[in-house]
Amino acid sequence: MSNNQKQPSSAHTVYTKYGCMRDLNHDHHDQFLRIVCETLGLYPPVPFNHKATTLPDILPTGHHVNRDTKMLISFYSMGRLEEIWGEDCLQFKPERWISEQGQIVHRPSYQFAAFGAGPRSCIGKDIALIQMKMVATAMLWNYRMQLVDDHPISPRTS
């Protein structure tokens, strides 16, 4: 099933269950949060970052790192690691963000690093997620999207 095939069923659910956009409840916003997180995992806004050490250090893997060593972190690759996300790591599956109890799964920042990790992670993460959910909700509510046949879509980094 393609992402385009998922959109009409999501839209139908929204339109039949809610009279207007104001009536959307917490459960619906959780559905959009799962979609946003899955999108950010597969297509992070910053595909990679680099850091330099200020002092010699030892990584959790046991590797020694000298002072001023530059390390590249690929958030794009991290969102596609089979060891973390499973055999279906390349598939768009928002349901991977919901637990068996129906709750949102909160991933540690070393697994889901779209907003960075550690003490220097993005302080605007929560407001950014709220804004993305609201924009996605408004787009789904106000527009009908369809895939144009024979027109491949591929992401580009800036």
UniProtKB/TrEMBL annotation:
One Pfam family recorded for the sequence: p450
Family affiliation: Belongs to the cytochrome P450 family.
Alphabetical keyword list: Heme, Iron, Metal-binding, Monooxygenase, Oxidoreductase
UniProt xrefs under PANTHER family: CYTOCHROME P450
Cofactor: heme
GO molecular function: heme binding; iron ion binding; monooxygenase activity; oxidoreductase activity, acting on paired donors, with incorporation or reduction of molecular oxygen
Keyword Signal applies: no
GO biological process: lipid metabolic process
InterPro entries given in the database record: Cyt_P450, Cyt_P450_CS, Cyt_P450_sf
Matches recorded under SUPFAM superfamilies: Cytochrome P450 (SSF48264)
Name of this chain's protein: Cytochrome P450
